[in-house]
C-alpha cells in the first residue's frame, strides 16, 4: 500500500482531487466513497470522560457525513499498553453506544507495514540515524532561532566516520540509534475543520483558519523520529532471541560507507527494532484502514503537519483533521483520573449520566431534549445524530466539575 517515489510530482494534484471528491455525497452517482472516521485509544488505563467526549464527537462527525467508522487499538508503545486495558476500553466504548464497522485494527499487528514505509523512505535517502540523547536535544534546542520543540538537526549531516564512531559508542552501552526523517520542508499545511486559536495562531506558532469548512492549519515539520532508539532489541526477525550484539555489529558493517540508502537497516536475520514512532505508525494505520477524517483532541494539533507531510512523502491520501477542544479538570489542566469519578465505572449515573454530560457539553450543536425523546433508555450517540450541527460546537475547552464537592 505504500507507494513512494513516483508520487512526489502528483501529490499536489491528488490533494486537489481529494478535495473535489470530499464535496460529493456518498452514494451519489459517480461520487467516490469518503474515507472513514475513526477512534484510536491507547490501551494504557481506563478511558475517561474527555476520551469519551472525543470518541462521541468522532463518531458524530463521521456519521453526519455518511462515513464509516473505524476502531483501532493504538498499542505501538508495547511497554505502556496492556491487553486488559484494550478489552476494558472496547467494552466501555460499546456501552457508550460507539460502534464501528469492519475489523478491529491493532498497531502491533501492522509492524510489517511500518517497516515497508520506513524502507520506502530509506530507499530515497530520507532516513538517517540519530545518536542524540534527550539531554543533547534539550541543550541544542535552547539555541536562538530554533523552532520550539523541533529537532535541531544535530545528526543530519554527519560524515560516515563520525557515524561509525557514534554508533560504536552507543553499541558499547547496549543501545541502538534512532532513525529520523530527512525532512525537505520546514512547514506543512493540513486541512483542519475545527482548530482552536480564534486569534489566528495555534500551537507551535502554526496558523489556524477561522475554523470554517475547508480551513487550513500550517505548522512546523522537523526531522521527526521514525523509529526510536534505545536498548538493543532482543527479538530477532524470526522470533526467538538470536544474538543481539552480533546483530548490531552486523548492522553497523552493513551500513558502512553509505549514509543515505540503507541507513539504519536491521541486519538480515538479526534483531529487529520494532519501536516505530507514533507519527509514522498513525499515518500508515489511517491509510490501511481507509481513514479520511481524523477527529481527536487539540493537544495533537501541532503533530498534524508532521503526519500529513509523512503521508505526502509516502504517497498516501491526505486526511481531513478535526481537532476538538479537550475536557479540562477543575484546575484548568487536562482532565486526569486525579480529578475524581471520570471513568465509566465511577461516573455518576454510569453511561447514561456520562452521555448526558457529554451531550450537554456540546451546546447548540445537538438538541438534548429531542435526543431524550427519541431514545427510550437515555441519550445515545445515535439519538444525538439527527440534530447534530458541527458548525455550532463550542470552540472553548469544557471544564469538568465533580458534583457534590464544595468547589462545585
Ligand atoms: Zn541526533
Automatic annotation (TrEMBL):
Enzyme class name: ligase
Name of the gene: gltX
InterPro entries: aa-tRNA-synth_I_CS (IPR001412), Glu/Gln-tRNA-synth (IPR000924), Glu/Gln-tRNA-synth_Ib_cat-dom (IPR020058), GluQ/Sye (IPR049940), Rossmann-like_a/b/a_fold (IPR014729)
GO biological process: glutamyl-tRNA aminoacylation
Basic and acidic residues: compositionally biased ranges: 16-35
Keywords: Aminoacyl-tRNA synthetase, ATP-binding, Ligase, Metal-binding, Nucleotide-binding, Protein biosynthesis, Zinc
Coiled coil segments of this chain: none
Enzyme Commission no: 6.1.1.17
Pfam entry (one): tRNA-synt_1c
GO molecular function term, any single one: ATP binding
GO cellular component terms, A-Z: cytosol
Family to which this protein belongs: Belongs to the class-I aminoacyl-tRNA synthetase family.
Glutamyl/glutaminyl-tRNA synthetase class Ib catalytic domain span: 38-167, 277-343
Protein's UniProt name: Glutamyl-tRNA synthetase
Residue ranges of the region described as Disordered: 1-44
Amino acid at each position: 500500500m505504500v507507494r513512494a517515489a513516483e508520487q512526489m510530482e502528483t501529490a499536489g494534484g491528488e490533494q486537489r482531487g481529494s478535495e473535489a471528491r470530499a464535496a460529493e455525497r456518498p452514494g451519489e452517482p459517480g461520487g467516490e466513497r469518503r474515507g472513514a472516521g475513526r477512534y484510536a485509544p491507547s490501551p494504557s488505563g481506563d478511558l475517561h470522560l474527555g476520551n469519551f467526549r472525543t470518541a462521541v464527537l468522532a463518531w458524530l462527525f463521521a456519521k453526519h457525513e455518511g462515513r464509516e467508522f473505524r476502531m483501532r487499538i493504538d498499542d505501538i508503545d508495547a511497554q505502556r499498553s496492556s491487553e486488559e486495558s484494550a478489552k476494558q476500553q472496547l467494552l466501555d466504548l460499546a456501552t457508550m453506544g460507539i460502534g464501528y464497522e469492519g475489523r478491529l485494527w491493532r498497531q502491533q499487528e501492522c509492524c510489517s507495514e511500518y517497516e515497508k514505509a520506513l524502507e520506502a523512505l530509506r530507499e530515497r535517502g530520507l532516513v538517517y540515524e540519530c545518536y542524540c540523547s534527550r539531554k543533547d536535544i534539550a541543550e541544542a534546542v535552547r539555541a536562538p532561532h530554533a523552532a520550539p520543540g523541533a529537532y535541531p538537526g544535530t545528526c543530519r549531516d554527519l560524515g560516515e566516520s563520525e557515524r561509525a564512531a557514534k554508533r560504536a559508542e552507543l553499541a558499547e552501552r547496549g543501545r541502538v540509534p534512532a532513525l529520523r526523517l530527512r525532512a525537505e520542508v520546514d512547514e506543512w499545511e493540513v486541512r483542519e475543520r475545527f482548530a482552536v486559536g480564534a486569534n489566528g495562531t495555534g500551537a507551535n506558532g502554526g496558523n489556524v483558519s477561522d475554523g470554517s469548512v475547508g480551513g487550513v492549519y500550517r505548522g512546523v515539520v522537523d526531522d521527526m523520529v521514525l523509529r526510536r532508539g534505545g536498548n538493543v532489541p532482543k527479538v530477532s526477525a524470526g522470533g526467538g532471541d538470536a544474538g543481539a550484539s552480533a546483530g548490531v555489529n552486523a548492522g553497523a558493517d552493513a551500513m558502512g560507507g553509505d549514509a543515505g540508502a540503507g541507513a539504519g537497516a536491521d541486519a538480515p536475520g538479526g534483531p529487529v527494532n520494532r519501536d516505530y514512532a507514533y507519527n509514522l505508525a498513525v499515518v500508515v494505520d489511517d491509510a490501511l484502514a481507509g481513514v479520511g477524517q481524523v477527529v481527536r483532541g487539540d493537544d495533537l494539533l501541532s503533530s498534524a503537519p508532521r503526519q500529513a507531510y509523512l503521508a505526502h512523502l509516502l504517497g498516501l491520501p491526505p486526511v481531513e483533521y478535526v481537532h476538538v477542544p479537550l475536557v479540562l479538570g477543575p484546575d484548568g489542566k487536562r482532565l486526569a483520573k486525579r480529578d475524581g469519578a471520570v471513568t465509566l465505572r465511577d461516573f455518576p449515573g454510569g453511561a447514561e449520566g456520562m452521555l448526558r454530560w457529554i451531550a450537554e457539553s456540546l451546546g447548540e450543536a445537538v438538541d438534548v431534549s429531542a435526543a431524550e425523546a427519541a431514545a427510550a433508555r437515555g441519550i445515545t450517540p445515535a439519538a444525538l445524530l439527527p440534530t447534530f450541527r458541527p458548525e455550532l460546537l463550542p470552540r472553548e475547552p469544557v471544564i469538568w466539575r465533580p458534583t457534590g464537592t464544595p468547589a462545585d
